Automatic annotation (TrEMBL):
InterPro entries: FAM69_kinase_dom (IPR022049), FAM69_N (IPR029244), Kinase-like_dom_sf (IPR011009). It is a single-pass type II membrane protein. Residues 21-179 form the FAM69 N-terminal domain. This is FAM69 N-terminal domain-containing protein. It comes from Phoxinus phoxinus. Keywords: Disulfide bond, Endoplasmic reticulum, Membrane, Signal-anchor, Transmembrane, Transmembrane helix. SUPFAM superfamilies: Protein kinase-like (PK-like) (SSF56112). The chain crosses the membrane at residues 24-45. One of its GO terms (cellular component) is endoplasmic reticulum membrane. Its main location: endoplasmic reticulum.
Length: 447
């Protein structure tokens, strides 16, 4: 772009040159050069100012504070000992740091993980009122412990509130927690409870926690220490690289892992239909397998990631809503359908009431077809293969899938059938072993 700008300016100068003398042309060039340098400098400074915060020093400082507080007995978690005492968590690099939200890559007992917290400081989270109350009642001193049922009660309220689920609907999680608590018959220290409370103030943690046992299309929570929780490290999609996720990212270390037999390097083209099938599976999960349908309202490549086994994982769940909350969000005053668009979730304007319908008109699959599949299966990306009958049929199916209309199920089934066929076609790669069990399960403070 810059080059074409320069060329345009050059020709403009040449044109001007007819009338204007050389010296002023030179002046013009100098002025232009100066402003170009100035603008670039500005961009450079700006970029550095913001990336400066996401430094290793800052990350280590933050982790050090977590460990200090762990040693003071302020916070705890199943990751703390490895992080602060045994040195089995190795910090790698900072991934994101803005408005206090901290995301870091690390390696925990050799497993690549991502450490996350919405706020950098433990003290920035609201304290658990229950603990203060107990302080006031002050029975047998500081180490007083709470009944698990109190915790379940608070946790349930917080979760339902956060996810916008009405009370009275069935939410499986707290019941499960309650059962496990009864079985284990143990009580919880205030450090554990304070930590749980800090985690429960992070919508993303709640979301992942609730869906952990229900689907493998969300990132696995592997552990936590205080307000930081560790999720599995995944290969995220990129805005600038529309068509595919890069699996190389999955190994944090630059040295390639020793190739086991099945670790055949899949080319991007082999991966696409497999990843697409996993997208379809995810869509079906989110639609049918929870007590409420789950809507994804911000669908773009960088909000999804894949595991080594090519399962698709939703990583940015800020814009994911269960049906009741979705209805709340969509019900707005309106004068036209345009007022009823909430990012990728749209409904219709009822002109008689001037109110948006509470029912979402498009679906997760429609948007995925439009924003992710269409570029993947476009003729430009398919290259020489684009003219083959299977590819043509696939392009048509994706196009149909992206449109809002009737016969959704038929379209979906056709799309799946075509993708399966495509996978089988290049089936030089047999059984993609679906077994990538992460060694241990995060026990959320051993509930
Ligand atoms: N499990 C993961 N594995 C690898 N990288 C991750 C993982 N989770 C997040 N990231 C990366 O960390 C960065 C920030 O993560 P995250 O999406 O949580 O931040 P965010 O600010 O909420 O995103 P957005 O601004 O899009 O809402 C992203 O660039 C993402 O690619
Ligand atoms: C976090 O705590 C440190 C040390 O107590 C402090 O310097 C910093 O300003 C705090 N950050 C925020 C965002 O509160
Ligand atoms: C909710 O739970 C109750 C009691 O366990 C059960 O009878 C009911 O069928 C459940 N409702 C739904 C919608 O799952
Ligand atoms: C929406 O419309 C109703 C009546 O039509 C009005 O009472 C209400 O204030 C409006 N809400 C907003 C947010 O404009």
């Amino acid at each position: 772009m810059r080059r074409s700008l320069r060329r345009a300016l050059g020709s403009a100068l040449r044109w001007l040159g007819v009338k204007v003398c050389r010296r002023s042309a030179l002046l013009l060039v100098l002025v232009w050069l100066a402003s170009w340098l100035f603008l670039n400098g500005l961009v450079f400074v700006h970029r550095n100012m913001f990336s400066d915060f996401c430094t290793d020093d800052k990350s280590k400082e933050i982790l050090q504070r977590v460990c200090d507080e762990y040693q003071q007995g302020v916070l705890s978690g199943d990751l703390c000992d490895d992080l602060c005492v045994a040195g089995r968590v190795e910090y790698k690099r900072c991934l994101y740091y803005e408005n206090g939200k901290k995301v870091m890559a690390a390696s925990w007992r050799g497993v690549p993980v991502v450490l996350k917290s919405k706020l950098e400081n433990f003290s920035s989270y609201e304290a658990l009122a229950l603990l203060e109350y107990q302080d006031g009642a002050g029975g047998t001193g500081g180490e007083e412990e709470l009944s698990p049922l109190d915790v379940v009660f608070y946790a349930t309220l917080e979760i339902k509130n956060s996810l916008g689920l009405e009370t009275g609907t069935n939410l499986t999680l707290p019941r499960l927690w309650g059962q496990r608590m009864k079985e284990s018959e143990r009580t919880y220290s205030r450090a554990e409870l304070a930590s749980l409370w800090a985690l429960l103030q992070q919508e993303e943690y709640i979301f992942l926690r609730v869906l952990q046992d229900l689907t493998h299309h969300v990132a696995k929570i592997l552990g936590s220490c205080g307000h930081f929780y560790a999720v599995e490290f995944l290969a995220a999609g990129h805005a600038w690289d529309q068509h595919i996720f890069s699996l190389e990212e999955l190994s944090l270390s630059p040295t390639p892992s020793p190739t086991r037999g099945q670790d055949k390097t899949l080319t991007a083209r082999d991966m696409v239909p497999r990843v697409a099938l996993s997208f379809l599976e995810m869509v079906e999960h989110f639609e049918n397998d929870f007590s409420h349908r789950l809507h994804l309202c911000d669908i773009k490549p960088e909000n999804f990631a894949i595991r080594k086994d090519l399962t698709v994982v939703a990583i940015d769940v800020d814009m994911a809503f269960f049906e009741p909350k979705m209805r709340d969000i969509l019900e707005q005053n309106c004068t036209s359908d345009n007022d009823c668009n909430f990012f990728d979730c749209i409904s219709k304007c009822d002109r008689t009431k001037n109110r948006c319908g509470s029912k979402r008109q498009n679906s997760n699959l429609q948007v995925i077809c439009e924003k992710i599949f269409r570029p993947w299966f476009s003729p430009t990306l398919l290259g020489a293969k684009a003219g083959l009958p299977l590819q043509v049929a696939l392009q048509r199916a994706v196009q149909e899938c992206a449109e809002i209309g009737e016969g959704r199920r038929a379209v979906r089934q056709q799309l799946r059938a075509l993708l399966v066929e495509l996978v089988q076609e290049d089936s030089g790669n047999p059984g993609d072993g679906q077994e990538h069990k992460m060694g241990r399960v995060h026990t959320a403070l051993n509930f």
